[in-house]
C-alpha cells in the first residue's frame, strides 16, 4: 500500500483565531509534514490556513476539502483542493478523510468535525491550552458509547506523536 | 406559500433510549402533529421512532431522512422517506430541513445535528429533564458566535410552543 | 407500513421549458396526486414547478428537494422542503427518494437524475413526444448492465400507470 | 499558489473493463503523472485502478475519492484516500475535484461524472476508440446549453495535452 497517513487539523476559522492559535496551528502543520503524513484541512482561513502554511514550509503535501464548489476559494498553501459544493456538510468529509484528528481551539464547526470523527472512531487529540472546544472536551468521551477518548495533549509535537501511535496500532 | 412548518425531533437511538425518553418523544411527536406541523425525523429507532409513532397517532405527516439508500430501512411510521445513502452525513440534511429542532436526551449523533442547526441559526429547544446532550447544552450557546441559544424547556408542549413562536417571528 | 408511493418528475428547468412541457408536467403532477402518491420534485422552476402546480391543484402532497440551504428558494407549491445545501449533487437525493421516475424533456441535470435512478434500479418512464433527454433515451438501457429499461410512454396518464405497476411488482 | 493541476480519469469499473481499456488507462495515468498533475480517481477497480497504477509507476500523486466510508476500500495505488461514505453520490465530488476530465469507455456511473463535469463547465476529453460512453458522446454537447463540448481525442497523450491546454486558458 502506498497510502500515506492522513492527519486532520481543525479549529477556529479567521473569526476566532488568535496569533496564539495561529502559532500552534503552524507548528502542528509543520510536525505533520515532518512525519511524512499528508495534512488534511478544511482549506480556508484561521487555524486551517496557519496549519497549511506550516505544513507547506516543511515540504508536506496539503489537501484542502472546502465547502465551495470552486477550488479558487481554498487558501494558497493547498497542493490539492477537493471542492465539495456541500457547505458546512463538508465537515463530515474532512473527518472521514482523517486517520487522526488534532483540535486547536474551535467553535461549532470544529465540534461538528469532532462528532463526525468520534462516530467513526478516529483517534482525536486536543491541545489543552488552546481553549474553547479543544479545552472543553479534552480527556472526555462525547457520549455513553465511549467510542474514543479525546486525549488532551500539551503541545503540537505531542499531538502528532499521539496520533501516529494510535494509527500504528 | 403552501409550505408547512417542519419540526425536527432528535435524541437517543435505540441503544440509549429509555422508556422515559420514548414517552417524551411520543408526546412531542404528537404535539408537533396537533400543531399542523410536519415532523422531520432521522427515521430510524429510539427517540426517532417514538416521535414518529406519536405524530402518526395524532394524524400528522412524518418525513424520515435516513442514512441508508433504501427506503425500507425507515421505521413503519414514516409517510415519506428520503433515503440519502450518505450515512451519518445525513445528520446535516435533517438539520437543514428543520424550521426548528427539539432535543430529547441524545449522544454524539444528536450533538452533530445540534451543531448543524446552530450553524444555520435554527431555533433549538432542549427538554431539560431528558438528560445527556439535551441537559448538558440547555440554556447555552455552542460557541462565541452566539448564533442561537439552545433554550431549555420543561415539557414537550412547551418545546413545540417555543419553536412555533420562534418560527413565527 | 404507512409509507406512500413516491414519484419523481424531472425535466427542463425554466431555461428550456416550453408551454408544451409545462402542460405535460402539470398533467403528470396531477395524475401523481390523483393516484394518492407523493410527488418528489427538484422544487425549483420549469417542469419542476409545473409538476408541483398540477399536484397541488389535485390535492397532492409535494416534496421539493432543492440545491440551496434555505427553504425559501423552493417554488410556492411545495408542502415540504428539503434544503440540501449540496448544489447539483442534490440530483442524487431526488433519485434515491423516488420509487419511480418520469422524464419530460430535460438536459444534463435531468440526465444526471436518470443515471442515478438507473444505478439504483428504479423504474423510469420517458414521455416520448417531450423531446431532448426523454426522447433520446426512451426505450433504451443506459449501459451494458441493463439495470432497467427507460420505457417510452405517450402520455402523463400512461407514465403514472406504468410507474405504479412497476412499484407494485 | 501551490495548487497542482488535478486531472480525473473515468471509465469502466472492473465489470466492463477490457485489457484494452486497462492499457489505455495505465498510459493515460502515466501521462498525467509525467505532466506533474495530480491524478484524481474514483479509487476503485477497472479503469480507475489501471489509471492509478500508471500514475504510480510514473511517480505521480494519486487521490482516490471513494464511495465507502473506510479508506481500506481504495485500490493499492492511491497515495491519498477521501472516503466519502456517500455511495454513488461521490461521482459529483470526483467531478468537482477535477480541473479536467478524461473518459475511457464507461457506463452509467461514468456518464454521471460526465454530466456533473459538464454542469460545472470542466474541460472534458473522450478517447474515441475506447467505446461506450467515451465514443457515444465524443464531439458532442450534452444539452442545448452547450456548456462545454466533449472533445474526442485519439490517444492518452492527446487527451492529457488537450486538458492541460484548456486548464491553461
Describe this structure in words.
4 copies of one chain form a homotetramer. The longest helix of chain A has 16 residues. In chain A, α4 links the parallel β5 and β6. Chain A contains 6 helices and 7 strands; from the N terminus they run βαβαββαβαβαβα. The first copy, chain A, is α/β, with parallel strands linked by helices. In chain A, α1 packs parallel to α2, α1 crosses α6 and α3 packs across α4. Chain A starts with 5 loop residues before the first strand and ends with a helix. In chain A, 38% of the residues lie in helices and 19% in strands. Chain A has a 7-stranded parallel sheet with strand order 4-3-2-1-5-6-7, sandwiched between helices. The interface between A and D is medium-sized, with 30 and 30 residues.
Topology:
Four copies of one chain form a homotetramer.
Chain A: E1 6-11, H1 19-34, E2 38-41, H2 47-57, E3 62-66, E4 80-83, H3 90-96, E5 100-104, H4 108-119, E6 124-127, H5 132-137, E7 150-153, H6 156-168
Parallel strand pairs in A: 1-2, 1-5, 2-3, 3-4, 5-6, 6-7
Helix pairs in contact in A: 1-2, 1-6, 3-4
Amino acid at each position: 500500500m502506498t497510502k500515506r497517513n492522513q492527519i486532520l487539523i481543525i479549529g477556529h476559522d479567521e473569526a476566532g483565531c488568535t496569533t496564539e492559535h495561529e502559532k500552534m496551528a503552524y507548528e502542528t502543520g509543520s510536525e505533520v509534514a515532518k512525519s511524512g503524513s499528508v495534512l488534511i484541512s478544511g482549506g480556508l482561513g484561521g487555524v486551517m490556513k496557519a496549519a497549511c502554511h506550516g505544513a507547506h514550509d516543511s515540504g508536506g503535501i496539503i489537501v484542502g476539502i472546502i465547502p465551495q464548489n470552486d477550488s479558487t476559494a481554498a487558501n494558497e498553501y493547498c497542493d490539492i483542493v477537493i471542492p465539495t459544493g456541500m457547505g458546512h456538510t463538508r465537515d463530515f468529509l474532512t473527518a472521514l478523510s482523517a486517520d487522526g484528528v488534532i483540535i486547536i481551539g474551535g467553535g461549532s464547526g470544529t465540534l461538528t468535525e469532532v462528532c463526525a470523527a468520534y462516530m467513526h472512531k478516529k483517534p482525536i487529540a486536543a491541545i489543552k491550552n488552546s481553549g474553547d472546544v479543544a479545552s472543553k472536551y479534552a480527556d472526555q468521551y462525547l457520549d455513553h458509547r465511549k467510542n474514543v477518548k479525546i486525549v488532551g495533549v500539551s503541545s503540537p509535537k505531542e499531538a502528532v506523536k499521539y496520533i501516529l501511535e494510535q494509527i500504528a496500532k
